[in-house]
Structure formats: C-alpha cells, structure tokens
Amino acid sequence: MNYNWNWAILVTDPYFGWIISGLGWTLAVAICAWVIAFSLGSVIGIMRTVDNPVISTIGASYVEVFRNIPLLVQMFLWYFIFPELLPEEAGTWVKRGMPLPEFWTAVVCLGTYTASRVAEQVRAGINAIGIGQRQAAMAIGLTPRQVYRYVLLPVSYRTIIPPMTSEFLGIFKNSSLALTIGVLELTAQTRQIEEYTFQGFEAFTTATILYIVVTFMVMTVMRSVEKKMHIPGVISLGAK
Amino acid sequence: MFSDFDYQVVIDSIPFLWEGMQLTFLLTFLAIVGGLFLGVLLALARLSHIKVVSFLAGSYVNFFRSMPLILVIFWFYFLVPFILGRPVGGFYSVLVAFTLFEGAYYCEIMRAGIQSVKMGQLQAGQAIGLTYIQNMRYVVLPQAFRNMIPILLTQAVILFQDTSLVYVVGLHDFLVNAEIVATRENRLIEMFSTVAVVYFILCLTFSLSIRKLQRRFSV
Amino acid sequence: MIEMKNVSKWYGSFCVLNDCTTSVAKGEVVVVCGPSGSGKSTLIKCINGLEPFQEGTITFDETSVGESKTNLSKLRSHIGMVFQNFELFPHISVIKNIMLGQEKVLGRNTEEAEKRGMELLHRVGLSEHAHKYPGQLSGGQQQRVAIARGLAMDPDAMLFDEPTSALDPEMINEVLDVMVELAKEGMTMMVVTHEMGFAKNVADRVIFMDEGRIEEDCTKDAFFNETRGERAQSFLSKILHH
What we know:
- The complex is a heterotrimer of chains A (240), B (219) and C (242).
- Chain B is mainly α.
- Chain B is built from 9 helices and no strands.
- The longest helix of chain B is centred in the first third of the chain and has 33 residues, at 14-46.
- The termini of chain B are far apart.
- The mean pLDDT of chain B is 87.
- Chain C is of the alpha/beta class and 242 residues long.
- Chain C has 9 helices and 10 strands.
- Chain C has a 6-stranded mixed sheet, with helices on both faces. In chain C, strands 2-1-4-5 form a 4-stranded antiparallel sheet, with helices on one face.
- In chain C, strand 9 (205-210) and strand 10 (213-219) form a beta hairpin.
- Chain C is globular and about 50 Å long.
- At the A-B interface, helix 2, helix 3, helix 8, helix 9 and helix 10 of A face helix 4, helix 7 and helix 9 of B.
C-alpha cells in the first residue's frame, strides 16, 4: 500500500483557491435554495392545513410529486427539459442568456424539492397545535387569516425549529448534487483535486472536515436561536 | 413540441433500461439488508450503558449524517480499491458506501423506535420478573418494531431514490442507462421524463402502501 | 338574545344534536348539564358558529348564525367564550392575550386596549400577572384570564364550556366566584357545567341534555325542587351525592 502523503498540497495554488471557491459555491447554492424552500414550503404547508379541499389537494399533490422523484432526476428535468417547455425566447434565455444558468437551475431544483419537505414540517407543526387554540382564536372574532398570523404560525414555527434546522442542513448537503450539472461546489472541487493530484485522502478529508464544521456551526447557532425563542413556562407545545 | 415526441425510442430501449433497473434494485436491496444489520448494531451500541461504546457509535452516526452521500460515494470509490490494493468494480465500492451511510440513518430510526416505548412498559416487564434480555425480546422490541416499521420502509424508499447517485461514478443503473440512450439518440425529453414517471409511480405506490399498512396496524 | 329552533347536527351518521329548541333572554343565566356525550359542548359551540349544524336555525340578537352571508368574525366579537382547557395563547403575555382581540377585531388602539385589559385583570384579581406568560400561571389563574379575555370584547353574552372541569378542586371556587359576580351584574350567560352549586346559586334556568336531546328546560327551582323526568332524576342523584 503505497501512498505519498502530501497535505501541503491543500494550501498551494491553485488547489487552495479551488477549495475556497467550492465552499463558496456550496454556501451560495444552499442559502439561495433555502430562501425558496422556506417561503414556498411555508405557503404549501399552510395550504395543506386549510379547510378548502381544492387548496389542500393542490398542496398535497405538490408534496407527493416532489417527494417521489429522486433529487438527481429532478435536477436533470430542470436542466435539460424545463428550458424546452418554455416558449422559444424564454427557453433560449434560460439556456444561454441568463447569467450562471447551472447555478440558478441547481438553486431552483433544490429549493422546490426542499420546499416539499418544509411544507410537511410546517403542516405537522400547525396540526400539533390542538383544535382548541384555533377555536379560542375564532371565538374572539379573529378571521381565519388572523388566526394563522397571530396564533397558529407564531407557535408552530417555534416548535419546528429543530426539524427545520435539519432541513437546512439537508439542503446544504444536497448542494453537492449541483456538481452533476456543472456547478463547481465543494465536493466537485475536491474530486477535481483528487483527479489532478491523486492525493485523494487529503482532498476528501478537507471536504469532509468543512462539511462537518459548517454542520456543527449551524446546529450551535440554531440551538441558541431555539433558546431565545422559547416560550416561558412551556415545556412542550403539543396538543393537550 | 409534444407532437414530435418519439416514444418509440423509449420502447426500444426497454431491455437496456430494465438492465439498469436491475442494478438499481440489487443495490437497493443489498444496501437495505446491510444497512439494517449495521443499524441494529449501532442502535444497541448507542443505547448501551458503556460510555465508550455509546460515544463511538454516536460519533459514527453524527459523522455520516454530516456528509453528503455523493462525497461518501467518492470516498469509498477511492478508498476501497486502495485498501484492497487492487482495482475493484465500482459496484462493490458503492455498495460499501451505501451500507455504511444508510446504517447511520437506520440506527437513528431504530434508536428512536426503541426509546419511544414508554418507560412504564419496561418497568411493568421488570415488575413481573423478566430479565433485561427477556424484557427487550418480549416487551420492548416487538413494540419498538411496530412503531419503526413504517419509518424504516420510508427510509428504504429514500434509499431507492438515492441509488440514482451512482451516476457520479458512472455505474449503469436505471438513470444512467436512460441518459446513455438519451444522449445517443438525442431524445433527452422522452428518456428523462420516462425515468421521472417510472420513479414516481414506483415510489408513490410504495409510499401509499406503507401508509395503508400504518393505518391497519396502528395500535 | 339567543334563539335556537329545531337544531340538529350529525357527525356522519351519528346524531349529535337532535331537534334542539331553546332560548336565552337578555340578562338570563342558563346552565346546561347532562352526562358525557350528551351534546352540551356541541350545543353552545353552535351558537357562535364554531360548530356547523345541518338543520334548524340559531339567531343571536337578530343575526342568523347558520346563514352563509353572516360575517362570523363580526358575530363572534359580540359573544365571549370560555373553554374547558382555557386555551390562552401561550406565546404572548397575559395582557397581550387580552389585547389581541380588542386591537385586531374591534380596532381599538394599543393604549385603549391595554387600559381596558388592565381593568379587567384587576376585576378578576390578577393585575400583578399582566406581563407573565400563560404557562407560568396556575389553571385557576389561566381560566380567570380567559374570562377577562372574553370580557375584553365587551360582548353581549358569554358562553362557558365546562369552565371548571379541567381545574384542580382547590381552584374551582376562584373561577366560580368570578362567574357568579358576572351573573349578578346582569351578563347574559350560557354555562355548560357540572357545578350544581353554581346553578342553584345564580342560574335562572336549567337545561338538561341527554343523547343529543334537550330533555328538560325549566326554571332552576322547578329543576331542583320538583320531580323531573327519569333521566334527569338519575343524573341529579349521581351528581348531587358529592
């Protein structure tokens, strides 16, 4: 078993630059996709808890479609097929005119996929609040919109901070799939380093450590956020 | 645009796609078996009273859960032949990667399942004189499995979808074979939409069956 | 004030309310009692539209509750409701609980809402707890805040759904005292409860329900002193033994 260890390669140009750039792209993809996932997912999650059967079925269908197709397949659908479905000029713009087409495709793909998962968390969070709260809010005359805004959502978003953190970390890890359409994020860059230098251990260890460090940092931050948002006097917010 | 859909391509490539699907199924099945086995060991280790054992198992789980699956695939694609000192088919490297990765997730599902059995049950078992092992075997684990099975099955569906990632090392699974045909015949839309539809139907059917199972067996 | 005519309600094929007809006049205090599952809670939740009903009519102060064009939000701002499980909003302070409806439904400004809120808190004896959160209060205290929350809307009537059933025995009286005072001040009240002492004290009428039907609907004296129907008698004998 012959292996030439060369950890120094990680800090030499251009490889060091590749690592930093890769990390940057990973974070960029993750954060942009999360913005979509959180907003779209919240809307769909709320839609699933509403009385109107049409609206809640649309929400349920969205979730089922995005949950039952592998993420990689979704990436290809967005990258190869979506531009073809648009009218000519729009399709051409997406393929060539738009800046960073691979980046934005990956962002939209990850965002819409994760939105389906966020929707499920939001739905679970709202449903975990007993029907009594909804009735009490309506009994003082709040309209359905007000009931969500002042009573249901403030409480359910606090309860779902842990699973939401987990979804964000999911997007962060899934950003690696962007490499299949050419985004040079962290995993891609370290693979490239391995292919150029044959220093597989060093390259992959770097990626591993960076993923672990970011995960750890995110979890620490979210734990303190959860503490700050804690409602005084409450141990668990489940339905009675 | 839809008028020049050439479904003949899809139909002609069915044997080739089926070959790919067989690899997908095989990989899924083996990874589930391996993952479950590893998961049980890890779960028991995590729940063990020996601090070192519990810590090691916990670290393993946290480690694999912090990493993207693609990176794990690259790691083992590189590492397995390296350790064995000779070239190894991509399939075995990937199988190792999947098993070790899924094992961490199965561990957490099983651990949660075991911990979801109320303390009162364990105490009731102790009160009638059962030993720890008897308690586990007759009281706790049966209930734990009942709770876990739907989630384990859901994880299996996720694994089935995750096998598509072998794309990054070029293994000929269902998706890769479809892509080969797609690029060769320049029929990306037909092939990729077929892949999406097939996965959707398979996964949705399985998920709905799991839900039906859950309803029938809910205590 | 409240008129209910031939109201029936089904959950699927199960009949929860069976042809219920009754009324509550302004200033009246009506107690609704009966065994579990008799439909008492459902009955009062129909009055403010929290539960829909399939047959019959309910009017509150000339407004029909069942009609689709009725603005339920507006209607509910005239009826206060107190729930068995208090249902205070856990994420906002006690005073904010009382201010929420005033600001968002009645459109009062913050100072007005706060002033009224503090008045009501004082009335139920809980002014020092204004800035605490519901989770930090005992059950009896939470229920008194819930009553204040209902009163903050200056309602024309108050509905109570088993207000003391979820309380530990030593806290029941603090809540009943508030309700007795409210009754003496002339509030129109409909109270679902097992507390017969309360009924004997301030009720004008008593309604007894069994299996979705109103079996008895008479004055308090008639209910307690005369012999009523068989079911009512059997219920009373079980309840009054405590």
